[in-house]
Amino acid sequence: MDRALNFNAEIPAEEVKERVVLPAGDYVFQVFDYKETHFNGNADFDIPACEQAEITLIVKHEDKTAFVNLNLRFLESKLPRISSFMRCVGLIKPGQGGNLQDLPKCKGLYGMANFTVSDDKRFNNVKYFRDYKPEYFADLAKAKAQEKKADDEEIPF
Question: pTM, whole model, 2 decimals?
Answer without folding.
Answer: 0.77
